[in-house]
Amino acid sequence: MVNATKGLFISCDIPMAQFIINLNASMPASQKFIIHVLDSTHFFVQPDVAGMIRSAISEFRDQNSYEKPS
Amino acid sequence: MPQVKIIAKNFMDMVASLPAIKLDMLYRNQFICEAILRSLPPLAKKYVLQMLYIDVPITSKSLQEWVIADGSSKHKVAIDRLIQLRVLEVIDRKKETAYKLNSTFQTNLRKHLINGGILPREPMPSNVTARLPTLEELDAYAHGQWECFLLQLISSGQAERSTSFSSSMMRIFQRGLLRQREKEVPRLTESGFQFLLMDTNAQLWYVIREYISNSEEQGVDQADLIAFLLELSFHTTGEAYSLNTLTDDQRAMIKDLADLGLVKLQQGRKESWFIPTKLATNLSVSLTDSSLRKQGFVVVETNFRLYAYSSSKLHCEILRLFSRVEYQLPNLIVGAITKESLYNAFENGITAEQIITFLQQNAHPRVAEKTPAVPENVTDQIRLWETDLNRVEMTPAHCYDEFPSRDVFEAASDFARVHCGLLWEDPKKMRMVVKAEIHMLMREHLRGNK
Q: How far apart are CA A55 and CA B215, in angstroms?
């Protein structure tokens, strides 16, 4: 019998993929969101984590830049 | 409230959406016929001219033979446009469709070709109008009016003098461009930002479009307004035309147009008159041409610094949208394009392409001579920073696995591919990911296969 799971398909570059894997690993077991790691640039994750991943990425990006105070 | 979309150059779409009776009424005016002709795509223009002196309907088949096979898509676009504008009338006969030019349009365009256009009003003799402004003065006036209007539009507090538009009118222009939360300063919306980066003609058409659709609500006929505007664009820049030649509605409208800088009103001893500016006469031209080159003012250096030779507050506000303004001298604004300032812009819905086009279109004459006008490393970096924001793509989907046999798996993956929903598959593990939209279809397909 075919089994269907609802979720979110993520497609990104390799460094971002590593970031997402790392993010997943840092979560407590109950909040792990990756369902399948499809290949090095594709994931299948829980349907409701889009916002969480995006904000984690933008936080990461902000840490990497410095704005001269005006 | 209807969603206001910002698209430049879509005035003709608005004309096309008028009801048939109004369009026919519009075509009674020769100038509108010419303006419509100007706005058509090249191939459609050719068709109109070719059919101008043909009185019998032409079958769609013979029309198709006018173009080579490669041009069929352009042919279709042209024909669709003509039908939409009711320039072409469709006549259905037993099996074939035939087209015929709209008879009012046809007669008027013929007359226009033979006699040339005669405006409903003559310029006033120079002994009545004591001293007319020179073209430069007029340009400066039009520019000043327009800028003042824009400043008032984006931040009501900043304009030095206010236009005579009532605040309710202003609010109509602002709807869609500004968003006001309770007890907060109004903020520009995504479309508001895009509006500011458009060139003047596109902005003008947007405002005019809002103006027209608003006056419809107040009981003024839309077709009349459009007719008057298009007619106005055929007047000569810098000549004076008497206000007495206008109808009451038109006289009410011309005051608003003066606020926008389309015309300048002047008063003599007895009579008053209006002088169309470049903004007005460019109206119908701008429907096809990309805008005329304005005098640019921005210099971008390879070190991401930005020098804008301008004293205008509006320019400063626009630059602030995507760069970090560092200091301002009386005639110079100095800023820097930084990653953070650009991220701000991207968050507000401005795209990298829009910023780059803005910088290129407004390049200072000194750098505009060079190609590229904006250093390549800067444009590339702007694009790179934008793509950096979209490194992760997410799609709602369903994942299917545990297929009973390879045949079922392959049938299912073919089925998903046919419906353009296959995102990813792994034949070895017999697993695939399919867009959420076609999940129901997939389920039925899998059930049917059992």
A: 45
Cross-chain residue pair B398–A38, CB shorter than 8 Å: no
pLDDT digits (tens, 9 = 90+) for B182-195: 555 566 676 777 77
Residue B383: predicted pLDDT: 93
Q: What fold characterizes domain A8-61?
A: Alpha-Beta Plaits (3.30.70)
Q: Which of B220, B249, B226 is nearest to B28 (CA)?
A: B226
Per-residue pLDDT tens digits for B52-98: 888 888 888 888 888 887 878 888 888 888 888 888 888 877 677 88
pLDDT at B301 over 80: yes
Task: Identify the residue with better confidence: B267 or B286.
Answer: B267
Contact status of B433 with chain A (Cβ, < 8 Å) = yes
Average pLDDT over residues B256-276: 79
- Pairing relation of β-strands B431-435 and A42-45? unpaired
Tell me the fold of B397-449. Answer: Alpha-Beta Plaits (3.30.70)
Contacts with B391 from chain A: Cβ below 8 Å: 12-13, 16, 57
Residue A8 forms contact with B (CB below 8 Å): yes
Using CA atoms, how far residue B48 sits from A50, B26, B43, B134, B447, in Å, is 53, 17, 9, 39, 56
Looking at domain B11-115, its CATH class is mainly alpha
Is residue A70 within 8 angstroms of chain B, CB to CB? yes
Asked if B404 and A2 come within 8 Å (Cβ–Cβ), the reply is yes
Question: Which chain A residues are Cβ-neighbours of B426 within 8 angstroms?
Answer: 38-39
Burial class (CB in 10 A: 0-12, 13-18, 19+), B166: exposed
3-state secondary structure of B350: coil
Q: Write the ipTM.
A: 0.84
Interface check B442 vs A, CB under 8 A: yes
